[in-house]
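INPUT
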Amino acid sequence: MSDETASKNILIVDDEEIIVDILMRRFERMGFSVHAALDRITAIDILENQQIDVIMCDVLLPNGTDGEAVLHAALAQHPESHFVAMSGNIMSDESVQKLLQQGVDLFIKKPFLSLGEVADQVAELVSHSE
Amino acid sequence: MIMDDLHFKEKKGAHPIPVHTVEDHEEPLGELRRFEDENNELRKELELGEERIKLLKKELKQANKLATLGTMGAGVAHELNNPLTVISAEADEILDSIVAGRLSAEQTVVSVKNIKQCAERMRCLIDYIRQYIRRDEDTSWSKIDINVIVENALLILKPQMLSQGIELKLNLSKPLPQIWGHKTKLGSIFQNLLSNAKDSFDDLTDTRNRQIKIETTFVATKEIIITLSDNGCGISENIKEKIFDPFFSTKQADKGTGLGLAMTIENIKEHRGTLYCDSKENVGSKFTISLPLERRGPNRKH
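OUTPUT
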């Protein structure tokens, strides 16, 4: 796994600092170069200035303006990158479908069933882009 | 109907008063009796009406409790899912590290501390919900710090506001003298008004700096004034009169039942307080609540 993920850049966006911290630890161990943001403005700033291969972003609340803004910035700056949306909200199948239609590659529900599986799924997304 | 009653009473009475027997002669006592019976009849109707109002008010309270719980539901799920994510993921971290044979004491301390912190957050939240649900059983009135009530209401609403890009400005005067009140009913006042303030930005498409301000002040010896203002969509002139009507709502069916403000008024009246609303369409709304300090029981008549 680490051969494929080495030198890959991941951006983690979540307003929950501990979640960012846990994901950072895990992805760093897997060989990713990890960038993190606790809000949309920082996330968009990173997207404009860094090479990013995969974005893991909490879509926050039902109207999801924050997550959407990051998604749009990601699509504009790095159309070849992968976008993983996360949410702890109760989301209908339609809203998840809508996210996928907007360009989200993977939707992950919080709490994660298994952190290891989540990390593997993200790594697989990146390895497929080779 | 009334005449029948009259005849019945005349027959049974110890001294029956003839009503129709004497022609061309006014019978003042008979007329008096008729009025009295009519009066009794009306009083009975009034009592029935009052009973019905009481019953409807009780139903309104119950419906509102469920409605607020419904709108709280989504927020609660989000607020519980985040710490739950941390707890579950940190547990995975520890387990995976053990399997990989690289578990360090340092990492264990970090993970366990995070787990503890998140478990505590969930405990606080569940405590708050439990208090809320038990509002009708818990009928006790006590001395209460309004600032604490405001802060509790923000426990669920603040993270939602922040993630919707709403700036929250708190100006709580501390220490505030305590007022005599009902904790959960007071809580529901702020839960409702602040939730409305948050929703007032939902349909806005402009880039205004979204703000909600909360201010508490003490007016010497008499009362506590709380103002809640937002610069959201405001209330249009043609619906201003209706906003306190039960079941009137501008929100979609899944977001509002139209019971929030009706119940808010009830709760404020019960605390002998007043509520003023000042609002301009597309500029914002300001709600001013005044609660008296004077210690008296709940106001049941209003």
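end of record. Residues 87 and 109 of chain A are 5 Å apart (CA to CA).
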